């Protein structure tokens, strides 16, 4: 009989706590839905942007509507192409002169007219120098081209409305407790 009273008191008290747990409406917290609508996200946009940048450097940035990035890409890739062509032309000049010197024919650097006379070793050193610069220019240009494709792809993956504005980065001045000296640092805070 005693068990029955204990169970019925616990049962009645549980109802009392349920009714007592009402929260006033001014204290209720509502959660804002931060999910994206599926229709607004184009899942093929990153691959399209990468493809467009592969076809013509800067076109992927234009596809992403980041028009200001396209001249930067054109300038970077164009500069690499310019240095490649310039070094290749100079390499070919010294190469032809070196071949002519070996064959005993006249060449551009044989000392006739206003030209300076270069020795066989100087011609060989010059062509080696410009060949290295040409190859380096080619590798840098290929790297910039690949970087252009990667940037367009990543930029299409991160639309502006997906970025979280609750993250902040602030410089701070603090005192070190052990030495009592002032120090400079940065504070990264995340609000949620």
From TrEMBL:
It holds the Pfam family DUF5683. Keywords: Signal. Residues 44-192 form the DUF5683 domain. Residues 1-20 form the signal peptide. It comes from the Bacteria. This is DUF5683 domain-containing protein. It comes from Aureibaculum flavum.
């Amino acid at each position: 009989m005693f068990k029955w009273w204990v169970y019925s008191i616990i049962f009645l008290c549980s109802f009392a706590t349920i009714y007592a747990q009402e929260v006033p409406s001014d204290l209720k917290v509502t959660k804002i839905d931060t999910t994206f609508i599926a229709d607004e996200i184009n899942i093929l946009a990153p691959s399209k942007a990468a493809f467009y940048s592969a076809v013509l450097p800067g076109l992927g940035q234009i596809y992403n509507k980041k028009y200001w990035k396209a001249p930067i890409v054109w300038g970077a890739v164009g500069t690499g192409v310019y240095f490649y062509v310039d070094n290749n032309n100079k390499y070919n000049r010294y190469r032809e002169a070196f071949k002519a010197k070996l064959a005993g024919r006249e060449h551009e650097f044989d000392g006739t007219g206003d030209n300076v006379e270069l020795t066989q070793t100087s011609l060989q050193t010059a062509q080696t120098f410009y060949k290295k610069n040409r190859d380096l220019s080619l590798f840098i240009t290929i790297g910039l081209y690949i970087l252009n494709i990667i940037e367009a792809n990543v930029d299409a993956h991160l639309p502006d409305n997906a970025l979280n504005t609750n993250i902040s980065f602030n410089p701070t001045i603090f005192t070190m407790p052990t030495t009592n000296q002032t120090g400079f640092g940065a504070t990264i805070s995340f609000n949620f």
